[in-house]
Design goal:
alpha/beta, 6 strands, single chain
Length: 197
């Protein structure tokens, strides 16, 4: 039976692959991106089942608005996928405060705000699923990579397991490597232009 999915970071990498496959299988997708034109071709191909929404994970009000409007427009969202993120590689002492803050805001606190926005709506509809996509950086430290946010995802998962009360939903945690998608190639040695996917 087709489901309604809400996916962050849907304009590239794993999020884009997921969006394509779900649409091809007949599901409906609310695909979030910072650049609305990034999914123009998919929008043409799947006009009836693809809803592209602007969302920037460093702006909590953007998250609340995007999630709330998606539930309102579609009546129900079955699966919320917290997927957006990017890698920041470089020696810790060479990274700027702004680079570190923006990455953690995107990769960790953005996920927290997304879950906080979605949980009351999932509770109201009687259940659903949350999928948290992380990276192997939470388990394996690579030289020159900042992985604190990935460790934070692991802690967040444990908190959610014990703190979601009687809500009938499932929490899934998926750790992606770098081999089969574009994460490493799209990650930056340094964030120089402020542009994230």
């Amino acid at each position: 039976m087709p489901k309604r999915w809400f996916i962050t970071g849907a304009s590239s990498g794993l999020g884009l692959d997921m969006t394509r496959q779900l649409l091809a299988k007949g599901h409906k997708v609310v695909a979030t991106t910072r650049r609305s034109d990034a999914l123009a071709q998919l929008t043409q191909d799947y006009r009836e089942r693809l809803d592209v929404v602007r969302l920037d994970l460093v702006e909590p009000e953007s998250i609340t608005s995007a999630v709330g409007s998606a539930f309102q427009r579609h009546g129900r969202i079955d699966v919320v996928v917290s997927n957006a993120g990017y890698g920041l590689f470089g020696a810790a002492e060479e990274l700027t405060n702004a680079e570190i803050d923006r990455q953690i805001a995107t990769n960790l606190t953005g996920s927290i705000h997304l879950i906080r926005a979605a949980l009351p709506l999932l509770r109201r509809q009687g259940g659903g699923r949350i999928v948290q996509v992380s990276s192997e950086g939470g388990q394996i430290a690579y030289p020159g990579s900042l992985s604190r946010d990935q460790v934070g995802h692991r802690r967040l998962r444990r908190i959610r397991r014990t703190g979601s009360g009687s809500l009938r939903h499932r929490l899934h945690y998926r750790r992606a490597g770098t081999d089969r998608h574009e994460f490493r190639s799209q990650s930056r040695p340094r964030e120089t232009d402020g542009c994230l996917r």
